Amino acid sequence: MLGDARPITERRGDGPGVLADAVFATTEPVVLRGIAAHWPMVQAARRSMQDAVGYLHDHVRADAPPVVATTAPPGCGGRVFYNDALDGFNFRQERVPLGVVLDTLLNYAANDAAPMIYVASTTLDTWLPQFRAGNDFDFGHRDPLASIWIGNRSRIAAHQDVPDNLACVVAGRRRVTLFPPEQLRNLYIGPLDFNPAGQAISLVDFEAPDLGRFPRFADAMQHAQVADLEPGDAVFIPSLWWHHMEGLGTFNVLVNYWWRESPAWMDTPMNVLMYALMTLRDLPEHERAHWQDVFRHYVFEADADTAAHIPEAARRVLSPLDEARARELRARLLQRINR
């Protein structure tokens, strides 16, 4: 079934201005082949796993705190997921020095029965502060959060992120499967407030989809896009696109950048969704319909006419928001929530 996915649009990533043209101006995913091929880390990984591990060792901050390492038995097939009852998870986590994780991965490289070892979303500037001096992109006025992901074979369930995401493979191989945001219903998303890594995930096992339990997943696959990435390749994942990530090698390293085009003071819409579940979802049907119209008027279809009948100086929250007004509104909301 996964073979039905169409390839993600590709372009070479080795020309001047490619990052700006291909990433910042599109709302569709795109694979940038070879965009990070010149990085020293990529060149080390192409030589050998030993060279890649050595390169990372050389850049780990001497007094860096331990990282969170996720481990699971070989029988999980690398899948980071729930337990059978969905009241816990199939992995455990512990804090260990990053250097120990690297050495452990190296020791397990030739072991076909190795446990899954995965270090997720570790901030580069905290643990490897000199790494970006030789391995980075020019993001212009944007200031993305740069993270590194290290492990052996792994399968990360389909999930979505609010920021735009540029994910660069620097060691090993990755397979990324993407779905547009409107496939939410067909991906059978699990609990919003209890999940392996802070984001709600698809409950479908992509390696063996159970269409008896998840029949609409067949419809989702009609919209899927897929790519296999080698060291030096990157994929741009637009905001809210669902992405399933697989580490295919015995040693995989990915560097990703998250950024939002909206102002930094804007809160995440997920907080609104959580509050709406508490305040709107269980209202009588006719009341929900009224509130749907209210949100359509003030939020989703708001335009210059929405508050045109109110004198400009009196529009308050109906005026364009800025950081000061947002801070004032947030304080008022917290006061009401905590009353």
Question: Overview of this structure, please?
Answer:
With 339 residues, the chain is α+β, with helices and mostly antiparallel strands. Helix content is 26%, strand content 24%. The strands form two sheets. The chain has a nine-stranded mixed sheet with strand order 2-3-13-10-15-8-7-4-6. α2 packs antiparallel against α3 and α3 runs antiparallel to α4. The N and C termini lie far apart (52 Å). 32% of the residues are buried. The model has no long low-confidence stretch (mean pLDDT 95).
Would you summarize the structure shown here?
The protein has 339 residues and is α+β, with helices and mostly antiparallel strands.
Name its key features.
15 strands, six-stranded mixed sheet, single chain, nine-stranded mixed sheet, alpha+beta, 24% strand, 339 residues
Give the helix proportion (percent range): 25-40%
What's the total count of β strands? Answer: 15
Total helix count?
A: 9
Low-confidence stretches: none
The strands making up the biggest β-sheet line up spatially as 2-3-13-10-15-8-7-4-6
- How large is the share of residues in beta strands? 15-25%
Radius of gyration: 22 Å
Briefly note the structural class of the backbone. alpha+beta
H-E string: EEHEHHEEEHEHEEEEHEEEEHHH
* Morphology: globular
Q: Give the N-terminus to C-terminus distance in angstroms.
A: 52 Å
Largest sheet composition:
9 strands, mixed
Mean pLDDT: 95
